[in-house]
Amino acid sequence: MTRVTRFAGRDPGPAARVAGFIAHLRDNGLRLGVAEAETALSALNAVSATSPDQARRAMRAVCTGCKEEAETFDALFDSYWMDAGRVRQKVVPTPSNSISDDVHSSRDAKGSEASASGSATAPDGDDGAADSDGTGKLIATAARNLSRKDLRDLVRPEEIAEAEAVARRLGAALRDRRSRRRIAARKGDRLHFRKIIRHSLATGGEPLRLMRKKRPDRTRKIVALCDVSGSMSVYAQVFLAFLAGLLRADTAADAYLFHTRLVRITEALRDKDAMRAIGRMSLMADGFGGGSKIGPSLALFSDTYARRFVDGRSVVLILSDGYDTESPAIMDAALAKLKKRGCKIIWLNPLKGWVDYAPVAEGMAAALPHLDLFKAANTLDDLAALERELGAL
Amino acid sequence: MTWTELQTALGGEGYVASDDLAVALHLALTLGRPLLLEGAAGVGKTEVARTLAATREAQLIRLQCYEGLDASQAIYEWNYQRQLLSIRASAEDGQTGKAVEDRIFSREFLLERPLLAAITQDTPPVLLIDEIDRADEEFEAYLLEILSDYQISIPELGTITATSRPIVILTSNGTRDLSDALRRRCLYTYVAYPDRTTELAILKARCPEVEAHLAAQIVGFVQKLREEELEKTPGVAEMLDFAGALMGLGIADLTDDPATLQATLTTLLKTQTDQAQITPEVAGRIAGRAA
């Protein structure tokens, strides 16, 4: 037990230490309120709190809320309570500037220190872990472009606003009509018994007016994957603005960038300030304008993120020219696997707008059988024009 | 009851709980909080609730979530057909509207669904809300209301307050992110695949008739199989099925008969690609290493 932290003599007592610990967790990106401190104290009463092992387990049950948090918890617990005898100067939390406006790349979040700063600014917190499982399987490439490009040079705020409107319309077009729950509606396909009974009381139990209910429309979740390799850089401006707009318009949408690697940019793009969101995205997207490994990126996507975020109600939107440096077999397998999750796959290819374009690129040809819709798009207007066709899906 | 006693009690019912899980369950019981269990399919999340109910001799009320689950399926519903009949009958008896209304909106005409049933028991039951991630966000909101106040308002009847607080266990396979509000209400434990010794203990508890040598082989085989890149990793339930299949076929050693081993793999591998990937040679190699 020599590693247990010795707290300073002027420390006001266990309650303050626990409050300090909760503040420590909060600084490190766990979302905890005042109520958790209270629960943590009563939890410690319920076990023998002097045993570090039991205290750790009790606090973990109270303070964590998902797998990623549970995994980081041990390190955070050690750093606060098992500080190898170093004296803690201060355990009472001070209201610090935890909502700092600095831009951090959460992709670099490896050590606990870096992850701390990364998630403190991330509004939704769990991007650190989500990204690291993407970076865990990085595909190295000679063609990786190491120069960082600031995407803020490419995208203007007005475009984002415009794209937001387009994305809203697309989202509305992608209604799914498969809800199993029914709501009251004038022209429904089934009787709404609860309402009928209610109204029939007024007519002495005679159901004169028949109320109906129908299946309401459901929105589909849009998952966008944008290719930002060198061959796509001319179109990047439009597509990135579209992604930024999409995530601002639709709170359920999900976005990824890929070139030689795959990066989840959803959390970054959710930043309240549109330009800062683009800034955060460009930090995450280093290698922008480099080579393209579409197949492996899609394979990685369908093995990892798709398992969590793609279901039968999703529409996967791939924005790419289909020029893949890898074997088309990988692309074929990846899309087949993705398709098995029950989603619709839409591929928007900027080159398709060209006269005489044929999908002769091997990768593109391999992808074609799996696609629900294969369309041209290289301007925002093109994207807006998709509205009608998406409705037909 | 301390958490170790709880762990022993669960063990008595044939459930081997890890220390983490036992502490979390103990806290859920003493603090009266719902417990959210997350983990891959087949690690024994649902079984926890069943065993807990058995050790406390409480009733287990189970609500299986699915997409489109709504209040009328989860909380309560009026028995409309009976109400209609009753209205017609009372019209012939010449009863007034007020009397009819009072009668048809009484508890007699209320169909209790799991959530309402759980809070109107005399003794605290174990309420298992299974696969909460399959239900949609709207349902999560209903659930939050009930989990925070333990009361249900029915417009026609008034508020029904809990006569006993159920022990609530939620399970999730993580196919969707749950809302923060729900996570905050609950204690949380991630149930991982058991390690070799724990899994061996589970096998001994569930199938005591398996010999020690074969048991070690079975567990070793399944543990190794989990390291392969499979679409669907076999869980504890599959491991028990596998053991059951081997017992039924009277096999004493995994490495004896590759053909039979391959045949019993149907209990472990549940997709076509997985079955294609684990060829007899691969299975034989894994069995050899596990021995």
Written overview of the protein:
The complex is a heterodimer of chains A (393) and B (291). Chain A folds into three domains: 6-88; 151-173 and 218-391, Rossmann fold; 180-214, no CATH class. Chain A contains 17 helices and 13 strands. Chain A has helices at residues 14-27, 34-46, 52-63, 67-81, 112-121, 127-135, 157-173, 193-200, 233-249, 266-269, 274-284, 294-303, 305-309, 328-339, 362-367, 380-385, 387-391; strands at residues 6-7, 87-88, 175-176, 183-185, 190-191, 212-214, 218-219, 221-227, 254-258, 262-264, 314-319, 344-349, 373-376. In chain A, helix 14 links the parallel strand 11 (314-319) and strand 12 (344-349). Chain B is α/β, with parallel strands linked by helices and 291 residues long. In chain B, strand 6 (151-154) and strand 7 (158-161) form a beta hairpin. Chain B folds into two domains: 3-75 and 113-190, P-loop containing nucleotide triphosphate hydrolases (Rossmann fold), CATH 3.40.50.300; 196-290. The A-B interface holds A 31, 33, 35-36, 39, 42-43, 46-48, 53-54, 57-58, 60-62, 64-67, 69-70, 179-181, 193-194, 196-197, 200-201, 204-205, 207, 307-308, 311 and B 2-3, 19-20, 23-24, 26-28, 30-31, 33, 35-36, 38, 67-68, 70, 78, 80, 83-84, 87-88, 90-91, 97, 100-101, 104, 138, 174-178, 180, 183-184, 186-190.
